[in-house]
Amino acid sequence: MRRVRSTPLLAILTLTAAGCGALQQPEGSQRTGLTGDRHTAGCAMARAPRHAVTGNVQVPLTPARLTAAMERIEEGGRERFAEHYSGMEIDHRGVRAVVYRVPSARFDGFVRSSAGTACVVVRDAAHAVAELSGWQDRVMADLPYWAEQGVRIVTVGSRHDGAGVEIGTQDIDEARRQLPARYGSAAPLVFVQEGPIPMLTSTSPTAPESVR
């Protein structure tokens, strides 16, 4: 998920787990129904997680072929398929990437060709990055207004799983009441409780773990 705290952009890494199989590209319509997880051919290959040791801490390593596949999908998803692509996360334990998208036969085919021999899981999402970016920009533009209304918004970010735009606020009850009243009850907003803004020393996301 890409989250914004006032002006900086924070990188968020999410880990999940699921099974593997073979990606089947649907025929016909550009949009298909919600059919659950799909998997590229690379998921059928044996994979084992690898780690580097820094001090007493194990740091997961991402194989070069998976990194390359994620970069291709992230770039193509945002530039060519923004109406379908939602975001991505990496599952280090499963040595695979998980791509979220609004169902699209063309995008599924793009993921399959971009994955190469890497394991990529494709999952359904409710909203794509093009839609969520618009909502995120709208909320960000209204931050002075919300401060005047007594709603202290700390973070705003499009969720990488396409669930909506996540609003981190110190005034969650007021946010749940006032924001839908302004943007409409159908606005894809997800509210979470946040504390005050901490001091930040880094503002740049790190690819590819930070994609979304």
Q: Unreliable stretches, pLDDT < 50, 5 or more residues?
A: 5-34, 200-208
> What's the rounded overall pLDDT mean?
82
Order of helices and strands: EEEEEHEEHEHHEEHE
What Rg is obtained from the alpha carbons, in whole angstroms?
Answer: 18 Å
Mind describing the biggest β-sheet? Answer: 5 strands, mixed
What's the end-to-end separation, in Å? 5 Å
Number of strands: 11
Overall shape:
globular
Based on helices, strands and strand pairing, what is the structural class?
Answer: alpha+beta
Total of domains: 2
Instruction: Please give the share of residues in helix.
Output: 25-40%
Give the strand line-up of the largest sheet.
Answer: 2-1-9-10-11
User: How many DSSP helices?
Assistant: 5
> Which range does the strand content fall in?
15-25%
Features of this protein?
4-stranded mixed β-sheet, 11 strands, 25% strand, alpha+beta, 212 residues, 5 helices, 28% helix, 5-stranded mixed β-sheet
Q: Can you walk me through this structure?
A:
The chain is an alpha+beta fold. It is 28% helix and 25% strand. It contains 5 helices and 11 strands; from the N terminus they run E-E-E-E-E-H-E-E-H-E-H-H-E-E-H-E. The protein has helices spanning 64-80, 105-115, 129-141, 143-148, 172-183, and strands spanning 2-4, 9-11, 38-39, 50-54, 57-61, 85-91, 96-101, 120-124, 153-158, 165-169, 189-193. The strands form 3 sheets. Strands 2-1-9-10-11 form a 5-stranded mixed β-sheet. A hairpin with a 4-residue loop joins strand 6 (85-91) and strand 7. Helix 1 runs antiparallel to helix 2 (105-115).
